[in-house]
């Protein structure tokens, strides 16, 4: 869930400056209300589940590419997968009240 929220925020910032017809479908004016509903949802995000998902993905990355691959080294930043997951999950996205200041969603 956190990855999806983060991805949507990053993509939205890139897409919102484009003319409506040139944006990816999910960021067009006709879909912004739905996107806002998802981004500002009060539905809980479960930290333990997010950590497990992220840890699994980080581990999978190293298994597929090898621990010495430059992308793996960059993703891990010299840390173990568990430490990196904990660092990445130190975010305010768990609390939907922190989204109230986002003005880019119109």
Q: What would your notes on this structure say?
A:
It contains 5 helices and no strands. It has helices spanning 2-15, 32-39, 47-65, 70-76, 81-88.
**For the residues shown, what is the average pLDDT?**
85
- Rounded to the nearest angstrom, the distance between the terminal CA atoms is 22 Å
Percent helix:
40-55%
Characterize the overall form.
globular
Task: Compute the number of strand runs.
Answer: 0
Largest sheet: none
SSE order: HHHHH
Question: Would you spell out the secondary-structure blueprint of this structure?
Answer:
Elements: H1 2-15, H2 32-39, H3 47-65, H4 70-76, H5 81-88
Can I get a quick summary?
The protein is an all-alpha fold and 106 residues long.
What labels would you give this structure?
single chain, about 110 residues, mainly alpha, about 0% strand, globular, disordered C terminus
